Amino acid sequence: METINTSAAIEIIPVESGNEFLEVRQSAIHGTGGYARKDIPSSTRIIEYVGERIDKIESAKRCEAENAYIFTIDDDCDLDGNVAWNPAKFINHSCAPNCEAEWDEGRIYINALRDLKQGEELTFNYGFDLEDYLDNVCQCRTPACVGFMVAAEHFEQVRTQSTLPKPSSKLVSAEKLIA
Ligand SMILES: [Zn+2]
User: Fold this and answer.
1) 11 CA to middle of ligand 1, Å?
2) Looking at residues 49-59, what average pLDDT do you find?
C-alpha cells in the first residue's frame, strides 16, 4: 500500500542545520559562524543569502537600527538577511575572506574564493562603507585586518587614519578619539 508522507512538506528545518556545504556552529571569530562541512572547490556557490525584500525607506530604518544583514538588490529594493530562514547570516566578516557575496539577477549568493578545506571557517567581506564604520569593530585577527568591517576599497583610508585606536580597543574609546 502506498502512503504519502505529508509531514515532510511542512517540516521546519532549523536554520542551524546549514546546508550541504555550510555547517553552523560556535565561531572562532564572533558568536555563531559558518564552516565548510566538506572540502569545497573554488568558485562553488555555497549558499544563497536569503531574506526579506524591503523597500528603501524600510531599509534605511533598519540600517539605522544597526541591522548589519542588509544587502542592496536594486534601485527599489533591499534584502534583509536577518531572518530565521537564512543560515548564511551566520557567516562572519573578514578582512581576508575566503568567500565573497555575488549579486546575480537580484539574488545574493555566497561563493568560495578559493579551495576550502572541511572545517575551515567561512568568511566574506560585508562590504560596508565608511559611514559609521567605527561602530563595527572587526575581530577577524587575520594579518590583513584593518580593525573595522569595511569594504576592501576603503582599507587604505582606514589604515592611514592615524587617530584610530588599535583593533582591540573598545568602540567607546574609538568614538572619543574621533570626537
Ligand atoms: Zn578584520
Assistant:
1) 38
2) 97
